[in-house]
């Protein structure tokens, strides 16, 4: 059973930065793509960023709304994926979820239905 635990969410002023972490346990961490999603009150959960492999090369993907501001990375030795968030805006306020695809599914997907494992989420609040 794969378990994902997020951390790093907090209240921050607009223009500030945060780094979210997601630590995985229960499987070989490097074997599947990972993603970050977020859900704001009253809205559907949406894709933020993902990291995986394509033709043995690491690949990343970002939602248009966060391109140039957010960076996803992973440290396989620590079983951890990170989301560095810069130039935060009030519209980035949401609960952020870490997700993992099944073993062997290395390509990044922006569809939450392609992710088998989810963390409990960490709250990010950006004040104006």
The string of secondary-structure elements, in order, is: EEEEEEEEEEE
Whole-number average pLDDT? 93
Q: Give the CA-CA distance, first to last residue.
A: 40 Å
| Bulk shape | globular
- The value of Rg in angstroms is 14 Å
User: Structural class of the helices, strands and pairings?
Assistant: mainly beta
Count of helix runs? 0
Let me know the number of strands.
11
**Share of residues in strands:** over 45%
- The residue fraction in helices comes out at under 10%
Characterize the main sheet.
Answer: 7 strands, mixed
Low-confidence stretches: none
Report on this structure:
- A hairpin with a 6-residue loop joins strand 4 (34-39) and strand 5 (46-54).
- The relative contact order is 0.33.
- It is globular and about 40 Å long.
- The model has no long low-confidence stretch (mean pLDDT 93).
- Strands 2, 4, 5, 6, 9, 10 and 11 form a 7-stranded mixed β-sheet that branches. Strands 1-3-8-7 form a 4-stranded antiparallel β-sheet, with no helix packed on it.
- The protein has 128 residues and is mainly beta.
- The protein has strands at residues 3-7, 11-13, 18-25, 34-39, 46-54, 57-62, 70-75, 80-85, 94-100, 117-118, 122-127.
């Amino acid at each position: 059973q794969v378990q994902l635990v997020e951390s790093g969410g907090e209240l921050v002023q607009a223009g500030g930065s945060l780094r979210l972490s997601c630590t995985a346990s229960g499987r070989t961490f490097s074997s599947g793509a990972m993603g970050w999603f977020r859900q704001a009150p009253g809205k559907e959960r949406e894709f933020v960023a993902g990291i995986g492999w394509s033709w043995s090369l690491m690949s990343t993907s970002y939602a248009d709304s966060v391109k140039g501001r957010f960076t996803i990375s992973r440290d396989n030795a620590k079983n951890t994926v990170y989301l560095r968030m810069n130039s935060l805006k009030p519209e980035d306020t949401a609960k952020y979820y870490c997700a993992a695809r099944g073993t062997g599914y290395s390509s990044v997907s922006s569809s939450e239905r392609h992710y088998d494992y989810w963390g409990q989420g960490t709250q990010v609040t950006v004040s104006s």
